[in-house]
Design brief:
Elements lengths: L1 H22 L13 H11 L13 E4 L2 E4 L21 H7 L20 H4 L6 E3 L2 E6 L2 E5 L3 E4 L6 E4 L3 E4 L10 E5 L4 E4 L8
Helix pairs in contact: 1-2
């Protein structure tokens, strides 16, 4: 009987604790787990460690015709000003939606995100732009052009890329471009420039 009475008292204390935690808005694990009260307190502490959502942190629904989209990613993917560096940006959707696009000033057209020349607008200098059969690259020294003809296979045999015996670099004496930027594009083509500090390209 004493054992039964002690168990009932413990269960009663746990029930009161759970009620208090629920009123505090804590996340409560299922009681089927039979966890001790300390586990519930820990769960509460973890769940309430973040800041309370602010009204402007809640994504708004933006109607577009018969459809809609969220005005921003959820709060847990939004900017985190209390963290430093990249971690303060949340997930990659925030990084990409706030990144600089290297296009000519005043350009307001949608920019392809998965095209063969996307590296031109997503970074200061482009990667290899495979304008077959040539490969073009925008770099600080100018524009390099190559004609890959051979496969370079990695030692593990799992990856390979095409290489060219040499590259032609198109540049100008005394010309120091700041970056590369897309000027015009279509489904198949892209035109870019390398402006200097005075805007000359």
């Amino acid at each position: 009987m004493k054992a039964d009475g002690g168990r009932r008292k413990a269960e009663g204390r746990t029930a009161l604790l759970l009620q208090a935690l629920r009123r505090a808005g804590c996340f409560i694990l299922s009681s089927a787990f039979r966890l001790p009260p300390s586990a519930f307190v820990f769960a509460c502490a973890v769940a309430t460690a973040g800041e309370s959502p602010l009204p402007d942190d809640i994504p708004q629904v933006v109607q577009v015709g018969a459809g809609s989209y969220a005005s921003r990613p959820p709060r847990d993917q939004n900017k985190r000003p209390w963290l430093q560096g990249r971690a303060g940006w949340g997930d990659d959707s925030q990084i990409y939606s706030n990144m600089r696009l290297y296009v000519t000033p005043g350009q307001r057209r949608p920019v392809p995100s998965t095209d063969w020349w996307t590296s031109l607008v997503s970074s200061r200098w482009s990667g290899d732009l495979w304008a077959y059969p040539a490969v073009v690259r925008a770099q600080p020294e100018g524009i390099s052009v190559a004609l890959p003809r051979a496969w370079d296979i990695a030692k593990d045999g799992k990856t390979a890329h095409m290489t060219a015996p040499s590259r032609l670099v198109v540049s100008a004496e005394g010309f120091s471009p700041l970056h590369a930027e897309a000027e015009d594009w279509s489904d198949w083509l892209v035109r870019f420039r390398l402006p200097d500090a005075q805007g000359r390209a």
